[in-house]
Structures are given as C-alpha cells and as structure tokens.
Amino acid sequence: MNRTKRAVIFDLDGTLIHSLPDLTVAVNKTLAEAGRPPLLETEVGPMVGDGASTLVSRAFEGSGGVPDGDLANWLARFLGHYEPHAADLTRPWDGVVETLDRLKARGIALAVCTNKPTKATHDILQALGLDGYFAVIVGGDDAPALKPDPAHIQEVLDRLQVSHDEAVMIGDSINDVLAAKGAGLPVIVVSFGYSRVPAIELGASYVIDDFRHLYEAVIGRQ
Questions:
Q1: What is the CATH number of domain 20-85?
Q2: Superfamily of the domain at 7-18+90-219
Q3: Considering 11, 13, 22, 176, which one is annotated as catalytic?
Q4: pLDDT (tens digit, 9 = 90+) per residue, 53-103?
Q5: Does residue 220 register a pLDDT over 80?
Q6: What are the two backbone dihedrals, phi and then psi, of residue 13, each rounded to the nearest 5 degrees?
Q7: Could you report the per-residue pLDDT of 21-32, keeping only the tens digit for each?
Q8: Which of 36, 86, 191, 222 has the most crowded CB, counting CB atoms within 10 A?
Q9: What is the rounded distance in angstroms from the CA atom of residue 192 to the CA atom of residue 211?
C-alpha cells in the first residue's frame, strides 16, 4: 500500500469466516419444505455473496424457481432455519484471529461490511468471539444499498470517520472489488473464498492465499 492505512474493512462470508456448511444446511432445509432436492456445498458456494434473498432465489432456480413466486415467504423460512444455527458449523479461516490481533495492536480500526443480514452477522461474530475486534459492523440491513454499490462501503467509512485513501477493503468476490473501487479504496482478495470466478481474475490490488499474509499486504514488511 502506498500510504499508511488507518482502517481495514472486511467482508464476512468467505473472507473472515467459512460459513458455507451452515448456509448449506439451512438452504437444504428450506428446499426440503418445498419438496425440492438438496444441494451440495460446492453448489451453494457460488450462490453466496449477494444477500440472503438472492441466495434463496438462486437455490430454487435449478428446480423450477421459487414456489408460487413468493420469495418473501421462503426467505423468512430460510432465515428461520439459518439464524438460530448460524454458528453451529461456521468457523474463522485459519490465521484470522492472529491477524486481527496484529492489526488491532497496530492501532488500525477494523470494520465489517457484509451483504449478510445484520442479525446473523452480529450473532455469528459474537458466537465466534470476533465481535470485539470491530469498531463498526454494517450488515445488509444497515446500508442504503448492498455491495457492489459503493454506498455500502461509504456507510462504513462515514461511521469510522476515515477517508477512502486511509482504508483498504478485504474480500473474496467481485462485489467486494467493485464496491471498493467505486468507493476509491484498494482491495485485497483472498483466494479461498466463495468467488464464482478465480480470485486472480477479479481485478484486485492483491490476492492472498493465506490470511496470515494480510498483515504484510496492508502494513508492509517491518
């Protein structure tokens, strides 16, 4: 990075946490209620990242679409399955906790910017003991628009009271890259997330294969 950063903004699913097992369980319980066949984790992964409503819609696409076209009903059913169990199988990626410790010790403000519903976001971070790291958490219910709209990131910047050139975005998908670039931030992408295309093709400033490499990508070698 060409300027010392005061803030690091993180996506959640696929970036900080491996949440796909719990998402897949909830998706399949929802599909079962409609008499639809279950999906594999490898099928659900590319559906993640655009918010819960889009996830539910995509889950039904391969078997005839949303029953009766009533997406609100099936979204509510999905959230009923997911939210009480959102951290049953979900875990931080290897290296996340130690990296957050290092960044926080450096005096850098940390934030989460996710399209995930706000309640599930807070519940998961609390269950995993990660909530205390973040000065700002902006979920899918808190912003005027979701990523890839840069307004989502701008909401985080405003709450952190930092400018775009003082922050960096960390994500795993094209939504993170487009939102960051639209808001004027550099963006680092992890290669192990849920992107529908290879991470190297997303146009990020950096791609990292191990979360432990993030500190040096942000701070530089000391």
A1: 1.10.150
A2: HAD superfamily/HAD-like (3.40.50.1000)
A3: 11
A4: 999 999 999 899 999 999 999 999 999 999 999 999 999 999 999 999 999
A5: no
A6: -65, 125
A7: 999 999 999 999
A8: 86
A9: 9
